[in-house]
What we know:
The protein is mainly α. The protein is 86% helix and 0% strand.
Amino acid sequence: MLKYIFTYLGTGMTFAAIDLIWLTHSGALYRPTLDPVLADQVNYPAAIAFYALYILGLVVMAVVPAGKAGTWRLAASKGAMLGAFAYATYDLTNQATLKVWATAITLADISWGTFVTGAGCSLGYVVWRWSAKRFG
Length: 136
């Protein structure tokens, strides 16, 4: 059980740390188009719920299967695909339904989601391997 907890925490901390870089430096992409609809403050309960559920999905669908198969490349590729699909779902739905959405946001966001999810799963795999040796 401890290996799953450590894997979840390791994947989550990696994903959140990398994503924080994007979130704090990507305002120039989002603000010009989305400023009229952006909230004044982050809804932290919603953000925490997203991270908690998304990380659980990454661990269950990418990190643990790759850990059992014994290859970080599988974790990276499964994570990247999962990120691309998840971010594409969000961005393409917004582009299809919102007047203020831009193609540049869709392309950048899907690319970011692919990268950050693949990276998070890769480091999650490293934690899985370490914790599996340590805790069985």
